[in-house]
Write a structure and sequence with these properties.
single chain, 9% strand, 8 strands, 6-stranded parallel beta sheet, two-stranded parallel sheet, alpha/beta
Length: 460
Amino acid sequence: MNLKTYVEFYELLERNKVSREENRTFGLATEAISFSPFKQIVQWVEQYKSRLEQPSLSEKFSSYLYGITFTLVIGSFFLGLFSGVGLLSYSGHEPVNVIYFIAMVVLLPLTTMTFTLITMFKTHSTQPFLVHLSPAFWMEKLLQFLPRKLEVSVENFKVNPLLAQWLIIKRSQLLALVFSLGLLLALLGMVVTKDIAFAWSTTLQVSPQEFHSLVYSLAFAWRELFPWAVPSVELIEQSQYFRLGEKLNVQMVDNASKLGEWWKFLAFATLFYALLLRFMVWLLSLWGFRYALLKSFLSLEGSAKLLREMNEPIITTTPKQLNSIPTESHIQTSQSEDVLSSSYSKTLGWSLTLEELHLLNDSMGVESTEVFEVGGNNSLEQDTQVASHAKGEVLFYVKSWEPPTMDFVDFIEELTEVTSRVTLVPVGTVEEQYLAKPHEIEMWGKKLQLMGNRKVWLKR
């Protein structure tokens, strides 16, 4: 299940590529999953998507959306990388203030993830909530710059508002995750290639003990397992920086070799707050997107009608109403019956496919243990084998507009040798709802009367 399948479903419904009869035939073939409308729809799309014009709307839409997303992901990564390099730039004259980096990898992720969670709970509101603040929101704006040829194809395609919001949320978390990865790589790269002196400095009146309490609280997730990644009070006291002219504190100069130990805390803070927590929110957004996609499939215009066509018989009246067609002369020209039984040991169809036979049984409200096609492209040996294994009462469909042939007459003779009763049902075209015309039934009645076989009955 993905967005491409959703667009394919939309396009199939929009173009009306599949007939009512094909839908019902498909429904009969997938009765085992009829309890799951979504699974039925997905399999239906897989069955008929080959009918879409190529390149299909789904391919165009997915390709360009992927291109835009890929561009934004690359941009986010390098933005995070360059932001990290900028925050960690060390001239050798002034130490790097860790507060800026902590704000970037702790405060910013916590703030944006809080807004994201609020947005997730508001996705069912009529108006989008905060999603327009996301960089991914502008993906739709970028579509305006696509070539006109594509724009003509997708300009009328409307994504379900719920699905659109979750798509923005999901991609926003992906961009933020990649941005944070860029920050982490920048930190590791700068630490490896440069001898950075870290310090902390703020205009607020914060003592080293208070600042230690803050970083100790922030390190709750790893301080027990990796205590060496938590700055000590001594390190915090030694790395406090006051801007007094252009000279560094003498104590900082004396302990310069220790100031680089801050990178361990910064790396773990980035891993936990900016990457791990963000990854969890991204997983939550994937679940939400999947839920929205499910709802969108079922709420798409035309999906309810499709499910009805798949799971409800084409003809909903009773067999008697369907088939009780008066003849022109009202003269009994053969053994006849007006109502079909509810079940038969075998169903046969002369020059009719298995799909058509299942559809006919469904339309007539008939159940049958076995269904076979005979005549048509079948060889005489195949037809003989089918006839020899028949038994009990057999339901036999024939095309009402095609007069009986000698091959058909011979097959009937073979069939009645091993069966107790054969009910012949002339059926019309799909457009006529399988109803045979009166003069066609008369033609078949006269033919059966000439045959004089007492085991053959005609359904009128």
